[in-house]
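Q: I'm a student working through a structural biology exercise. My instructor gave each of us a protein and asked us to get a predicted structure, then write a short paragraph describing it. Mine is Haloacid dehalogenase. I'm not confident about reading structure output yet, so if you can add a plain explanation after the tokens, that would really help. Here is the sequence I was given:
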Amino acid sequence: MRPPRLVATDLDGTLLRPDGTVSSRTARVLREVDAAGVTVVFVTARPPRWIDAIAGSVAGHGTVICGNGAFVYDVATREVLAVNGFGHDLVQAIVRDVRHEVDDVRFAAERSSGLWFEPGFPHDPEHPVPADAVEAPIETLAGEAVGKLLARSEALPEGDFLDLVAAVVGQRAHVAYSGAGGLAEINAPGVTKAAALERWAARLGIGAEEVWAFGDMPNDLPMLRWAGVGWAVANAHPDVRRVADRTCGSNAADGVAGALEQLLPGSVQKV
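A: Happy to help. First, here is the predicted structure for Haloacid dehalogenase. I'll explain a few features afterward.
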């Protein structure tokens, strides 16, 4: 394998330990990779508002591709640099059609300015609702474009709900699953981790063959297929392990750090 010029890694279930933290070993390796001139990009389903707590793991600077490709976020300035979203007409058509099929479905929308959620939307208990979030019916959504539309049902089994949403949405948008229990994550057509990463790499003059990408869940599949070397952590979804070129240790065992350590100090410095 040729050493990479760019390392792209998912966060939850991949780089982060099961408790959601960055280990000291992983933080050290990422700093060494960064110091050697290799670009490190986090590519995550998380919205921009969930990034700042781990910003130090990319040496306090760098880029994070958020929302499965919907947002490009600058760590140092805490600014959303780009939004790859969809308009309100399409959002409302999808909301209407999914609600017609699933009575108890609740929606939320991630935007560059923050969260919009309708009453009854079940939130992740590990991430409190921010004070600036807007609570209102999704049908009254207005203003800026939606980066990612979220849908949840508590009545249907997770797999059935995700399959139903994907069938209802069809080719109008891209439905992803990042492992968050029962959460259907809906992006604009063509918006994936791979598409956003490819655009960012092109701006740096970096081709797919110069990229190592790490992931664990089905929403990582486009990115792993695109990258020159796609890595699955040992705890990855079976579909991810089948597609990946290589497998590293689990997220509990700092698998990403272990894979990158084999490049240090000599090989990375020659990139």
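A: Here are two points you could use in your paragraph. Residues 88-101 form the longest helix (14 residues). The chain has two domains: 6-83+192-269, 88-187. It's a good idea to check both against the output above yourself.
Q: Great, thank you!
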